[in-house]
Amino acid sequence: MTMSWLMKAEPDSRVVKGKDVKFSVDDFERMKVSPWDGVRNPEASRFMRERMKMGDKVLFYHSNTKIPGIAGFAEICKEGYPDYTAWDPSHPYFDPKTDKDKPKWYMVDIRFVSRANHLVSLPLLKHLATLPEPPSNLPYLKEQHLKAIKSMALLTRGRLSVQPVDDPLVVEAVELLAEKGGWDEDIDGAKKRNGKKRAAEALGSEEAGDNGPEAAGAKTESRDAGAKKKRRSNGADTPTRSEGSRRSARLKKE
DNA sequence: GCCAACGTTGGC
DNA sequence: GCCAACGTTGGC
Predict the structure, then answer these.
(1) How far apart are CA A120 and CA A176, in angstroms?
(2) Which CDD domains is this protein grouped with (predicted)?
C-alpha cells in the first residue's frame, strides 16, 4: 500500500542562527529536489527513516505564514538516510549529542511535482471539516472526500510537521481542490482588505466567530477540544522551522 | 515518578 | 505580537 505524507515548510524569510529558514513552493520549484534535513523530532524522524518509500506522494505545506495551506505536490525520491546537518556545528539544528556512528536523525529527499493551482488553505480545510455534507459550490467534492478531510492529522495534530496522510481520499480531495478551486479564490485579498470576517464569508463560512459559533453546523471543535483528545498522543511536535533552515542552507550554495 | 515551570511551534 | 497547545525538564 502506498502511503502519502504532508510536510511543512516556511515560505517567509526568518533568520535563525544567521541563516534564513525560508523555503517556499517557489524555492522548491527551482530546486526540483530537496533534502528534508533538520527535523529534530523523534516521531517525524521515524517516519522518514522507516516508513517513507520511493514514489510516496507528499503534500507540500506552507506554514507560519499569512495563509497557511497546501501549496504544492511532491514525491519521495530518496528514502531515509542520516541527516548530516545534525553534525554540522554551524547549522541551526546542530545536535552535539548525536554520534556519527549511530545517527539519530534521518531525512529523505523529495522531488517537486507541481504547484497547487489554488492554495488549499488551512482555513478552507478547517471549514470543510465542520460541514455535515459537501458544499454545493464544490460539486466535485464527494461525501467520502469530506470524511477523509476530517481525519487529517493537520487538523487534529496541528503541530506535527511531518505527518502521514493515511487516507488516499485526502490526497484525491486536495488534488481536486487544488486543481478546480471553486470557493472564493480571493480569500487572500479579502483578508487583507476586509479582515477576518470577510475572509470567512469568502469561504462560505461563519467561522470567523462573529456570527455565532453554531452557524456553520457541525463546528464544535476549538483548539481546546482538539487538544484534549490529543493529550494522550505519543509523538512530540516537530520543528517546522528547522526544515526551512536546512533547505535554505542548501539553497545558498547554489 | 509526579507535576509545575519552561520552551517552542505555529495559527491568528 | 500574542498566546494556545503540548512536549520537555528538573525539583522534589
Answers:
(1) 10
(2) EVE
Distance CA A78, CA A66 (A): 31
Could you give the 3-state DSSP secondary structure of residue A33? strand
- For residues A148 and A152, what is the distance between their CA atoms, to the nearest angstrom? 7
Distance A139 CA to C7 C1' (A): 41
- What CA dihedral angle connects A146, A165, A10 and A126, to 10 degrees? 20
pTM attached to this predicted model: 0.78
A13-48 tens-digit pLDDT: 888 877 888 999 999 999 999 999 888 888 898 899
Would the Cβ of A52 be found within 7 angstroms of any atom in strand B?
Answer: no
Q: Given this structure, which CATH class describes domain A4-253?
A: alpha beta
Please check whether residue A119 is in contact with residue A51, taking contact to mean a CB–CB distance below 8 angstroms: no
What is residue A191's three-state secondary structure? Answer: helix
**Position with higher pLDDT, A181 vs A89:** A181
pLDDT tens-digit map of A103-119: 888 999 999 999 999 99
Q: What is the pLDDT of residue A185?
A: 57
Is any atom of nucleic acid chain C found less than 7 Å from the CB of residue A220? no
